[in-house]
Write a structure and sequence with these properties.
The structure holds 3 protein chains of 3 kinds. Chain A is α/β, with parallel strands linked by helices. Chain A has 23 helices and 12 strands. Helix content of chain B is about 30%, strand content about 20%. Classes of the chains: A alpha/beta, B alpha/beta, C alpha/beta.
Chain lengths: ~500, ~230, ~260
């Protein structure tokens, strides 16, 4: 671990927030937005890692291709997107009403609903429930919400052993890695790396690296745990207000194991997960499966309501998590962020994510959705580099099943970051800030603009070589010229040419 | 718990501040919900026969074995499937018709079986609520003839009886069939799978790895599957 | 047909030849073109970096400058996207009733170059001659914001002598992204490298696009790496004439242009 105090901040003229430059590829990614390195610095070791880039590109190509085929075949795909978007918006517009309805129905059906204002609140609620149950072990279905609140280390410290049951989560837990994608969290790990982790941690020295063998090893490793551990923790894909039901969407079957066999079930869900009515699932399930895994329907969906006597857990708790969501709800442009159904289609489509993978975003929510959700969950105190981690190409918006206009939110957040920063004295001399303020002044008067063009031609002329091109520039310019040439400024601007032509014509 | 109710108050206060105080009226929400535009496909357009063919096609894509029979042939069809499977101990929910329980097998009727017993069984026989042809999905509402969730989860083989009249084409049609929202639902679209390792799809992680479906032609149509 | 050319700040400064080509092309097609000498910038750079107040002052200036103009033609899809997608929000947030009205009236009169040719002039054969192998890069703004669709292809297909090669992974961003190219220069370069692989695969002599911003980025790398390919704006291809097409050639539907 390099020390922030002694290691120079990554050389980057525009971002002074790189608290800890990652210089060694072996460094563990830090998925805590309050501690992670800023995006421009965080990407550097990743960009130099061909294996990782290949793994990421391969994974997203596979899902993208499957998704594309199914979207092509679904003649009402755009109508489904519209409906999904409107259903989610309606849920958010009347969020208080729907949450209270959910709570009433779930409680009537024998569940207990808890409300957690923030991550610490949620962690404490869950640990208290486990203590009441005398639970020393829990089995878990993958839930990014629990990663968001950093639940596992907290439980472990509280004397509860946590056993992840999703294959990707097992790989990460046993290999002490971090998720890099919200649907396929271990996509950055290849088969030989998995083999090494399982062989070491499961004591299987003769294990091959065939995915089939690796999966079988995980199946065996988990079987007894499913049958014996009486307490489980899950997330929720949707909460249905009308019925007080919880919906879990999965492929592996570990979800069904966790929510059927134990005695006590705890589900943690962001408050935004609610949909108004049972019937709304007819839209949400169609768009989720196609967007997340490129299937018409994922292998297993489970819907349950409170407690059903004689079937499944007899003690059921739901923890509703705010942790910054109610604040996002208040923003006119920002609210659409909460429509997200965590399908990851945006990161699969993102040309930036394709090159960087998820860890560089320093959050359990990476990619385009992460770039808007993470800083907002941090109330814009951290992760300010994430709204800039985008070329604004719009591919994410095109594929989002609930039509979140991610570029629009990115731009809104950029303006919030700038408004935050421009007040800081340090920013006054930041080349980017200074440059843009000067540029604005120049654009306000034609003569200023033209004068600046002249000066620019003279100034850049110093850097222009005989072939008429600039190969190297100082300051921010160096960021351009490190990989690109810049053609020198032409002798005559267009407007000067036009003026001369007009003069000639007279 | 008092802290939780403090949090509850705090959260709801923030939510209502964000969405406006008008927003807390259930009638408003209901009206807004009813006004939501739904331009997507609700009813399928396939003929009954095409729908059944699609269902069978999808099931076979999932490597499920599909056979069919006329309603009065069902007990015989079940017997045939059991014989071909080579399995001995089969779990069945308490509500399946008696005539389904072919003699000569070790039937474990679920009057409240222990988990270990279910784990040791070779297979399970159930009915289902509905099936969706578009996605090849079997839907269980865990009624008396479908059984508790655990019995279709632990055994490695699921023999499922599906009536032709239970098949719909689209997912919205399934929802239309639910008179009231069910408390428990499990949808099954193929065996479990994972693509977590290098995106290589591996089938059969947890849950039954094998499924046989008996399609009962209760709609009067002639059998036609090859 | 009359139109006013908004050259864009970066074309004025860095790619005046694109402007000259637009003039030559449109005048050849019988368009009476003018040019507001006081124009500067549409505000995109500021808006995209988060400087909304500054962006608005430029937007205001733009709208006021062109309020009496029949049609504003812009050889840059990103600038048109700025006006269509971001101006509404800026005027809503920072403008007043009058300005919003002025903007609303102006908006339908602002068009990108290929839109002007195909939709307004209703021509796809502009009498061009460009005997080279060319591939077309669809900039993200043109593709997703303006939905230009097949307009550029229809125009390029009618260019005599042009050997068109389609580009693979057409909808993938080249990595320029405005200030992204310096704020996240390394990722931008990685995306550029991947894009260049696809472009080089075409074996083309020229990579063309409707936006010099993307071309500055791609072309800068081509030059740095001695890749033996050049970039050129679509306007310059369309302005090119020669054997088989003359400078005074009128397209078949010239009569429709009034």
């Amino acid at each position: 671990m390099t020390s922030a105090e002694t290691t120079p901040v990554a050389e980057h003229p525009v971002d002074h927030r790189a608290e800890r430059p990652i210089e060694h590829p072996g460094d563990q990614p830090i998925l805590d937005p309050a501690k992670a390195a800023a995006f421009p610095a965080a990407v550097l070791p990743v960009l130099r890692n061909p294996q990782l880039r290949k793994n990421v590109a391969h994974a997203i190509d596979v899902i993208q291709a499957k998704r594309a085929r199914l979207v092509e075949e679904k003649s009402d795909w755009q109508e489904l997107r519209s409906a999904a978007s409107r259903i989610r918006d309606e849920a958010l517009s009347h969020l208080g009403t729907y949450l209270e309805q959910f709570e009433a129905r779930c409680t009537e059906a024998g569940g207990t609903v808890h409300w957690a204002a923030d991550a610490a609140d949620a962690r404490r609620i869950i640990l208290d429930i486990l203590r009441q149950e005398n639970a020393s072990e829990v089995i878990k279905i993958k839930t990014m919400t629990s990663a968001e609140i950093q639940l596992n280390p907290f439980l472990e410290a509280g004397g509860v052993s946590v056993f992840e049951t999703d294959l990707a989560e097992i790989i990460l837990q046993l290999g002490e890695g971090e998720p890099s994608h919200i649907v396929v969290p271990a996509l950055h790990v290849n088969r030989s790396q998995v083999r090494e982790i399982f062989a070491r941690r499961m004591g299987l020295n003769d294990l091959s690296d065939d995915p089939k063998a690796l999966t079988a090893a995980a199946r065996n490793y988990l079987r007894r745990k499913f049958l014996e551990i009486p307490t489980a923790i899950s997330g929720a894909n949707f909460l249905v207000a009308e019925t007080g039901s919880v919906v879990v969407v999965e492929s592996e079957g570990n979800g069904r194991m966790c929510l059927t066999l134990p005695r006590t079930m705890i589900s943690i869900a962001g408050i935004e997960k609610v949909v108004p009515r049972f019937q709304d699932l007819e839209v949400m399930l169609q768009v989720l499966a196609r967007s997340a895994t490129g299937e018409r329907m994922n292998p297993y969906n489970s819907i349950w309501t409170g407690v059903t006597p004689g079937d499944g857990p007899q003690r059921f708790h739901v923890v509703l998590l705010d942790n910054g969501r109610s604040q996002i709800l208040a923003g006119k442009t920002e609210r659409q962020t909460l429509r997200c159904i965590r399908c990851a289609a945006c990161m699969n489509a993102c040309p930036v994510y394709r090159q960087t993978g998820g860890h560089a975003y320093g959050s359990v929510y990476p990619g385009p959705i992460g770039a808007i959700l993470t800083p907002q969950l941090m109330q814009m105190h951290h992760a300010q580099s994430l709204p800039y981690a985008s070329s604004l190409c719009g591919a994410c918006y095109e594929v989002c099943p609930v039509k979140i206009n991610i570029p629009e939110v990115l731009l809104e957040l950029r303006s919030q970051v700038v408004n935050q920063e421009r007040k800081q004295t340090l920013r006054f001399f930041d080349p980017m800030y200074l440059g843009l303020r000067i540029a604005n002044l120049l654009f306000s008067r034609a003569w200023l603009f033209h004068a600046a063009q002249q000066m620019g031609r003279i100034g850049l002329g110093i850097f222009t070589r005989k072939d008429g091109w600039i190969h190297s520039l100082p300051s921010i310019g160096a960021k351009w010229t490190q990989t690109r040439d810049l053609r020198g400024l032409p002798d005559q601007t267009f407007h000067a040419w036009w003026a001369a032509r007009e003069k000639e014509a007279k | 718990m008092s802290t939780s109710s403090q949090s509850r108050q705090q959260i709801l206060k923030r939510i209502y501040a964000a969405t406006g105080s008008e927003a807390d009226r259930p009638e408003q929400a209901a009206a807004a919900w009813s006004a939501l535009p739904r331009g997507y496909i609700r009813m399928g357009s396939m003929s009954a026969e095409a729908r059944i063919e699609r269902m069978v096609e999808r099931l076979r894509e999932y490597d499920a074995e599909v056979t069919e029979c006329a309603p009065d042939e069902l007990p015989g069809a079940i017997a045939t499937q059991l014989r071909a499977s080579g399995k001995r101990s089969i779990v069945a929910p308490a509500g399946v018709p008696r005539e389904w329980l072919t003699t000569g097998y070790d039937w474990k009727i679920d009057y409240d079986l222990q988990t270990e017993e279910i784990e040791r069984a070779d297979g399970v026989l159930t009915a289902c609520f509905c099936a969706i042809a578009d996605s090849g999905t079997i839907v269980l509402h865990h009624s008396a003839s479908e059984g508790r969730r655990v019995i279709t989860l632990l055994p490695d083989w699921h023999l499922c009886v599906l009536k032709a009249s239970q098949i719909v084409e689209t997912l919205p049609e399934y929802f239309a069939r639910c008179q009231t929202a069910p408390a428990l639902v499990t949808t099954i679209s193929g065996p479990s799978a994972t693509a977590d390792i290098e995106m290589t799809r591996i089938k059969g992680v947890h849950g039954p790895r094998f499924m046989n479906v008996i399609l009962v032609r209760d709609d009067g149509s002639k059998t036609s599957l090859n | 047909m009359r139109a006013s050319l908004f050259i864009t700040c970066y074309n004025d400064t860095l790619y005046p030849e694109t402007g000259r080509a637009v003039v030559s092309l449109l005048e050849r097609l019988g368009v009476e073109l003018d040019f507001h000498a006081r124009q500067t910038c549409c505000g995109q750079m500021h808006a995209n970096t988060g400087f909304r107040g500054e962006a608005f002052s430029q937007a205001k200036r733009f709208v006021q400058m062109y309020q009496d103009t029949e049609t504003v033609v812009i050889p840059s899809s990103s600038c048109v996207a700025m006006i269509r997608d971001q101006y509404p929000g800026l005027f809503e947030e920072l403008g007043n009733e009058d300005l919003r009205r002025q903007f609303a009236a102006l908006l339908p009169r602002v068009v990108e170059l290929s839109e002007f040719l195909i939709d307004r002039l209703k021509v796809d054969d502009v009498g061009a001659y460009f005997p080279h192998r060319v591939t077309y890069h669809a900039s993200c703004h043109g593709l997703r914001a303006l939905h230009l669709g097949d307009r550029p292809y229809r125009l390029l297909n009618k260019v005599r002598g042009l050997d068109f090669v389609p580009l693979a992974n057409l909808d993938r961003c080249c990595g320029f992204g405005g200030t992204f190219s310096v704020k996240n220069a390394e990722v931008s370069s990685a995306m550029m490298a991947v894009k260049l692989q696809d472009i080089m695969q075409t074996g083309a002599e020229f990579c063309t696009a409707l936006d010099n911003s993307c071309l500055m980025h791609l072309g800068g790398a081509m030059h740095r790496q001695y890749l033996g390919m050049k970039t050129i704006h679509v306007a310059e291809i369309l302005a090119s004439t020669g054997p088989g097409a003359t400078a005074t050639q009128r397209p078949a539907r010239a009569e429709a242009i009034r």
